[in-house]
Amino acid sequence: MNRTMIRLALTAALLASTTPVLAAPSALLRCDGFGRRVSTGESVARGLVILGTLGLFGSAEADNPAARETGDKGIQACTDAMADQRVTGNPIRRAEVFLARGFRHYEMGHFAAAEEDAKTAQTMVVPDPAKPAFDRTVGVSALLLQALIRTAENKPEEAETLALAAAARRPWGNFTIEQALTVLMLSPTISPGEAKLLDRHFQLWPGSMRAQAREAAGDWAGAASDYAAVIKARVEGDEVLEARRAAVLALAGDTAGAEAAVKAVRQRIDELATKASGTDNAAQVAGQKVARADEMVQLARAQLALLAGRTDDAKAVLAGRERWLAPAPIVARVIANAQAKLGNSGIGSLSLDPAKVLADARAVKLNDLSGKKIVGLMMIAWPRYEDIDKANDFGKDIALPVPQVKQETARDGATLKIGLQREGATDTGNEAMLVLAANVAATRGAAEYAIVQRNSSLRLPREGLSDAFQTWQIVFPTDALWESQKGRSISIAAVQAELAPQFPAPPPVAKR
Questions:
Q1: pLDDT tens, 196-225?
Q2: What 8-state DSSP symbol labels residue 47?
Q3: Long-range CB contacts (< 8 A, 24+ apart) of 113-120?
């Protein structure tokens, strides 16, 4: 999943939520934007006897996310909605309302009230057939909310326990793992639990979260290795990431590797700079990339000069700039290394306090985990209950021998491209794609595979962040790209044992 695409989709949804509402919405719509919860899978396939009345009483209002109230008004709307027959008659819907009120309490800094609502939502008694899906959706969101509350209360150990508990309920869910890691990565220290989660995320998505965590922890060689794998997975490379890798290699003490990386990326930056002239959007994007990449090249050059004992060269680079937009761990370490040899001259960035650079960056991250910004993400993207029959629908699509799944070579035969067209919560779709990829790999006699590219069509229905269509590019041990990606390999046996049972194949049709 492309994280930039997620941010764009969320931004669009948040803007849409400001649309004026013409009809007077009910308290339920003003609470979380959704009406009664009833689905074909719940009411027909399983029968009303199983799930009770399902909140069938009351108005059949259409969902209207634009009606959501924020702050204290949102809290009151959710409180009023508790008496709505559509809520009293359905424990799942009631849990969602408690969760929404918890989000609003968190928004207003009412942490004790937010935690009480989160726990109530998490422990709601729901019918046994729905319990596994409930725990993997509403239960996950309730645990993530409690993790953020503990973070806001400066209780990092408890926050980590809750974040890991949320991820454990969806151990192959890329979105859930990312949300948990936003809490865990506030600390530069990588705990054993966080390390396992970072490893899993690196398997599921060719992105740089693990590299960033390793940077913050001072594991420069590990970060450089991760960046190399990510760059290889990208079709057209990435000048900013390549420059960042050069800086990290220099901090790892790999002079030869860093010098080679600097030389290669400076050529690419020069080429990109030719596209930065002009005023159109493409030129602006190119200009931003050039500026960001060039900063990290300068930091790499400064560190290389320090390694070689050329302190005057390092001073020339660092004294000429008072401010850096590069990642704080890299900036802080290069400055600290320079000050250890040159002292704090009070000139340019040599006057900066490395500890303050890191503290300021952490403060920004903490601020991003509070207030309206994060609550907007909670309300529209965090998991809500997903019909338990969705997994069965995916099971029909991915069952062996998967003849209905489109398969084609990509990158001139370097990867295999597979696709799946069915809307579902993003983690559900991700899990189904993992099983599909394993099934395809099994038909080719492979024991493992690696994901080198993922694209999806994002939606924001009542289940939270969802995908309507996914395409992946995967590689196997016999492919040329495998050498750079084998550290991200996924075991087919593990996927088939842990995930395949969640997506049962339809029973065979009896022959007449």
A1: 999 999 999 999 999 999 999 999 999 999
A2: -
A3: 114/145, 114/149, 115/145, 115/146, 115/149, 118/142, 118/143, 118/145, 118/146, 118/149, 119/146, 120/95
